[in-house]
């Protein structure tokens, strides 16, 4: 059976591998290549190799002076990198804390637990574009319910233009992401909590350990691997955030993330090769952060 | 003490429900209002006015957009399940060199940022003459549905005992017969879970749909919603936007409520992205 079965296995694998090569491998290689050319949206075939010109180049003025141009000295790009990192750090931290709290509640035995667990899945299932629109309406400066509630409760003295004002635009974007992604976090952490054997809690209770100590000394260390996996997945996802920013705060340098920068350059500003170069850097940044994070986390775990 | 703790616990539960459900509740409430009612914030339903739904579903391209979303998501799910089932048989049941490396490669594709392939994929779409066609989306969505499907189905198939295919092998059944007659009937639970998750991901996708199709009757529903606008920024038709949002979201919420256990299990099994 060995040989014919292996032949069949190869035959079964081929379509899947060819598909992935076509939609992932080849396009990634082409994107990286475009980053080293002068390709434009209207003339992809005429792309010519220009080396590192999109990344860094010296532009002489002709009188001996000149300036550096390219992605590596582009303030807009570094602003987008910064925005993405801030967004990722804040949202993933808040989502982890809130997700852990919700997971602890869902891990307790109480009537209607199934209902609450289903409700928690609702924000996750709603399309991101719809979430962004729902919150854009709730955060509306004139008719939004958030301002209305804030004023009624005395938390706000005047209506805030959450989405439009530069100070709060990023807060609004983060709020939508936190609302949408916390449930995912909670479910992943809950899976980790459910792996902890119940007798450990029983033993702690009999020994008279108070619940807060039990949480810090038993629950948290034992759930740490599951929390870590959840954090990595969320961070990878947050680093490429696009939909929320694009829909909630279009054309806003306060919230422009790396993905938005890439998409705009590729398809709106007719800077196809420049966008491809940015896309390559984004890929590298994500790959490096992933590796560094996994390595650091593993060191802390042992 | 015990009662205080009980009250605190239920307050926490109420807070979680409010946090997760209020935005959608408010979208439904807004979608049923029009005229001046729309512009006075209220917390409980006051009017029941279906004119927003009539406007969104009655004219324009929105019904076509919803249909496009259904077609694209269904085709994506069907193709990923077919390719995933055959590939997972090879990966789970046939020992060969380089199997682990292959599985790791598949998993790493699922970590790919979609935006990193956007430029190259645009070229592929154009080369195949698929620009502005729904096929461009069905093809490109496989980048995130296929790796996840292969991963989950492989894990599931590996855990099935050897005995179930022994009889078929002794009878001289071909691998194709073994996959379709022996494994397929056993794989339904895993296929339903992965199929559902792939459907939801494809239904919600935005960046490829925004980039690869450009006319109003080939758009998918999320892009159509993102593009609803009034004649000026001051005249955003919030009622219509909320009605369209409810139309696009309601089927998903029903699916989630029916299959919540399976979805939760699938999410944690593969760590699929949100």
Automatic annotation (TrEMBL), chain A:
Q: Where in the cell is it found?
A: Cell membrane
* Membrane topology reported for the UniProt record: Multi-pass membrane protein
Q: Which SUPFAM superfamilies match?
A: MetI-like
- Alphabetized CDD domains for the sequence: TM_PBP2
Tell me which domain of life the UniProt entry assigns to the organism this sequence originates from.
Bacteria
**What are the GO BP annotations of this UniProt entry?**
transmembrane transport
> What sections of the protein cross the membrane?
80-106, 118-138, 169-193, 214-236, 272-294
Extract the Gene3D superfamilies matched here.
Answer: MetI-like (1.10.3720.10)
Cross-referenced InterPro entries = MetI-like, MetI-like_sf
- Iron-sulfur is among the record's keywords: no
Q: Which UniProt keywords apply?
A: Cell membrane, Membrane, Transmembrane, Transmembrane helix, Transport
Similarity section:
Belongs to the binding-protein-dependent transport system permease family.
Task: Quote the protein name from its UniProt record.
Answer: Trehalose/maltose ABC transporter permease
Q: Which organism is it from?
A: Agaricicola taiwanensis
Automatic annotation (TrEMBL), chain B:
Task: Give the source's domain of life in one word.
Answer: Bacteria
Q: Which Pfam families match?
A: BPD_transp_1
Say if the entry is tagged with keyword Coiled coil: no
Entries under PROSITE patterns matching the protein: ABC_TM1
State where the protein is found: Cell membrane
Where does it mainly reside? membrane
Q: Where is the ABC transmembrane type-1 domain?
A: 66-259
Q: Does the keyword 4Fe-4S apply?
A: no
The record's family statement is:
Belongs to the binding-protein-dependent transport system permease family.
Protein name per Swiss-Prot or TrEMBL: Trehalose/maltose ABC transporter permease
**Which organism's genome codes for this protein?**
Agaricicola taiwanensis
